[in-house]
Write a structure and sequence with these properties.
Elements: E1 3-9, H1 12-27, E2 31-32, E3 41-46, H2 51-69, E4 75-80, H3 81-93, E5 99-101, H4 109-112, E6 145-149, E7 151-152, H5 163-167, E8 171-172, H6 175-187, E9 192-196, H7 212-220, E10 228-231, H8 241-249, E11 256-258, H9 266-271, H10 278-281, H11 283-291, E12 296-303, H12 310-323, E13 327-332, H13 350-373, E14 379-387, E15 395-398, E16 410-415, E17 425-433, E18 438-446, E19 451-452, E20 458-459, E21 474-476
Parallel strand pairs: 1-2, 1-3, 1-21, 3-4, 4-5, 6-9, 9-10, 11-12, 12-13, 16-18
Antiparallel strand pairs: 7-8, 14-15, 14-17, 15-16, 17-18, 19-20
Length: 483
C-alpha cells in the first residue's frame, strides 16, 4: 500500500477531520508517515476562514507540490475548507493537485489516495457529515490529550464569517456517541479531553436536548480515568446558569470559559449581526466569577470591522480594562468576498486596524502581567508536557486555566522527587511570573482530579501512567477567531 503523509492546518476542529481521515486510511491498510519526503501520497487539510489562513493553505499546497516535481511523491490531495470555497479554482489553477475533498467528503480520502485512481474529484454530491464513536481516528496530539468534536456547522448569521458556507448548518453528534468516544479515549490513556465545535453551547438543541452541553460535561465528568475536561468556543448569549453550574459542580471540568465576543460597541456588534453590547457583556464575567472565583476567562476580538470608529474602539479599550480577561486574542478583520460584511461601507485601513490591535494587546499585557504575578506562591496542579528545549528552563507544562496551544505555559526550573515525565499531573508551587507565562517548582506529589462516588462525596485516585503516542502526523496550526 502507498505511504501517506498529511499536513493539517487551522483549528482543532480541522485537526479532528485530519485524524479521522488518517484513521480511515490506516484501517484500510495504508502506511502513514510524518515525513513528506517519504510519502507516496500527500494530503493537505486546509483552512480558509480568513486571508492569512487562505495564504498559508496555498503556500503549503505549493510546498507539497515540490515533492511531486522531485519525484518522491506521486499524488497530491487537497482537503478541507479551501476546497469548499475554491474547489474549481484549485482544480483549474493548481494542476499539481490530483484530487480534492470537501469537508463533508472525509470518507472519500480512500479513493483519493489510490495511486491508480482516475478523476480529480468524486463528482457526486455529499450529505452533511458527522463522524461517530466507531469512526477510526489516529490522534496527532500528545497521548495524554485529545479533542472531541461534538457538533459540526453553524446557524449563527455573523456577517464577518464564512463558516456556515463551508461547514453547513449546525448539527450535533448523538449524546451517547460523544460519551462513548470519551470513554474509549480514556481507556487508551487520554487524560485531558477538549470538546470543540463551532458553537459548543448550542450542542443538543437540534436533537431536542435542553442544556445539552451542561449535561454532556456532567456525564463525561464521571469517567474515572480523565483528569481535565474543557470545552471551547461559547456563543455569548448561550452561557447559561446551567452551564456555569455544571462547570462549578463537576470537579474534572476545567474552570475555564472561552467566549469569543468579537467586540463591545453596540453599533459594531449590530453590524456584525451579533447584537448585545459591552455593558451587557460585563455581567457575564461577574456572574461566572461569583460562582467560580478562580475561573479563567478567554475571549477573542476583531478590530478594523467596517465602520469601526475611534469611539467604537475606545469603547473596546474601556471594556477590556473593566472585564480583565485572563486570556485575549485580537484579530484583524478579514474582508472575505463571500461574507455578509464584504460590501459594507467605511472599510477601515489595514494600517489603522494594526495600530488598534497593538494598542489593545498592550492594555491586555498589563492585565495579564498582573494576573500572572498574583499566582506567585500558589500551589497548583501542572500538566507536564515535556522538556523545554527552546528555553533555559528544564521542562514545560500547563495549568488547568491554560488551554493547549492557545494560552501561556508554565516553565519548570526545579523539581522534588522523580524526574517529571510527559503526561504527568504534578502539584507545583509558582515561583516566578512574566507577561503570559509562569515558572514553577514541581513537588514530589501527583495530582488527580477528584471524582464523585455514588454517594456524591469527592475522593482522590492515583494517576495512571500515560503511554507514548501511537502515531503522529505533521500539523501546522494558527489562531483564528471563532464565531
Amino acid at each position: 500500500m502507498p505511504k501517506v503523509g498529511m499536513v493539517s492546518l487551522g483549528c482543532p476542529k480541522n485537526l479532528v477531520d485530519s485524524e479521522v481521515m488518517l484513521g480511515l486510511l490506516a484501517r484500510q491498510g495504508y502506511e502513514l508517515t510524518p515525513r513528506a519526503e517519504d510519502a507516496d501520497v500527500l494530503v493537505v487539510n486546509t483552512c480558509s476562514f480568513i486571508e492569512p489562513a487562505k495564504q498559508e493553505s496555498i503556500n503549503t499546497i505549493l510546498d507539497m507540490a515540490e515533492h511531486k516535481k522531485s519525484g518522491t511523491a506521486k499524488k497530491l490531495v487537497v482537503a478541507g475548507c479551501l476546497v469548499e470555497r475554491y474547489r474549481q479554482q484549485i482544480l483549474n489553477e493548481i494542476p499539481e493537485v490530483d484530487y480534492v475533498i470537501g469537508t463533508n467528503e472525509l470518507e472519500r480520502v480512500l479513493e483519493a489516495c489510490q495511486l491508480d485512481g482516475v478523476g480529480r474529484e468524486s463528482g457526486q454530491s455529499a450529505e452533511p457529515y458527522l463522524y461517530h464513536e466507531f469512526t477510526p481516528r489516529i490522534l496527532s496530539t500528545p497521548s495524554y490529550s485529545a479533542y472531541i468534536k461534538i457538533a459540526e456547522g453553524c446557524d449563527h448569521p455573523c456577517s464577518f464569517c464564512v463558516i456556515p458556507q463551508m461547514r453547513g448548518k449546525f448539527r450535533s453528534r448523538r449524546f451517547e456517541s460523544v460519551v462513548r468516544e470519551a470513554e474509549q479515549m480514556a481507556a487508551q490513556g487520554v487524560r485531558e479531553i477538549t470538546l470543540v465545535g463551532q458553537d459548543t453551547t448550542s450542542y443538543g438543541e437540534d436533537l431536542g436536548i435542553r442544556d445539552g452541553l451542561p449535561l454532556l460535561l456532567r456525564e463525561i465528568g464521571k469517567i474515572p480515568e480523565l483528569v481535565w475536561i474543557r470545552f471551547l468556543y461559547c456563543y455569548p448569549n448561550r452561557v447559561t446558569e446551567a452551564l456555569i453550574e455544571a462547570v462549578a459542580e463537576t470537579p474534572k471540568v476545567a474552570k475555564y470559559f472561552d467566549i469569543p465576543l468579537q467586540h463591545s460597541s453596540a453599533p459594531v456588534l449590530k453590524a456584525m449581526r451579533r447584537g448585545s453590547s459591552g455593558k451587557h457583556f460585563l455581567k457575564m464575567p461577574e456572574k461566572i466569577r461569583a460562582a467560580i472565583p478562580d475561573a479563567a476567562l478567554r475571549t477573542s476580538l476583531i478590530v478594523g470591522f467596517p465602520g469601526e470608529t475611534e469611539e467604537d474602539f475606545q469603547d473596546l479599550l474601556d471594556f477590556i480594562t473593566q472585564a480583565e480577561f485572563d486570556h485575549l486574542g485580537v484579530f484583524l478583520y478579514s474582508n472575505e468576498e463571500t461574507c455578509g460584511s464584504y460590501s459594507h461601507p467605511n472599510q477601515v485601513p489595514a494600517s489603522l486596524a494594526k495600530r488598534r490591535q497593538k494598542k489593545l494587546m498592550a492594555v491586555q499585557r498589563k492585565i495579564s502581567r498582573r494576573k500572572m504575578r498574583a499566582k506567585v506562591g500558589k500551589r497548583l496542579p501542572v500538566l507536564v508536557e515535556g522538556t523545554s528545549e527552546e528555553t533555559d528552563w528544564l521542562f514545560r507544562g500547563r495549568l488547568e486555566t491554560q488551554a493547549p496551544g492557545i494560552d501561556g505555559q508554565v516553565y519548570i526550573n526545579d523539581f522534588a522527587g522523580p524526574e517529571p515525565r510527559t503526561g504527568q499531573f504534578r502539584w507545583a508551587t509558582i515561583t516566578e511570573s512574566a507577561d503570559y507565562d509562569l515558572v514553577a517548582r514541581l513537588e514530589d506529589s501527583y495530582f488527580a482530579a477528584p471524582e464523585h462516588t455514588e454517594a456524591g462525596s469527592a475522593v482522590r485516585r492515583d494517576l495512571v501512567q500515560i503511554q507514548p503516542p501511537v502515531a503522529r502526523v505533521s500539523t501546522r496550526g494558527h489562531a483564528v477567531p471563532h464565531l
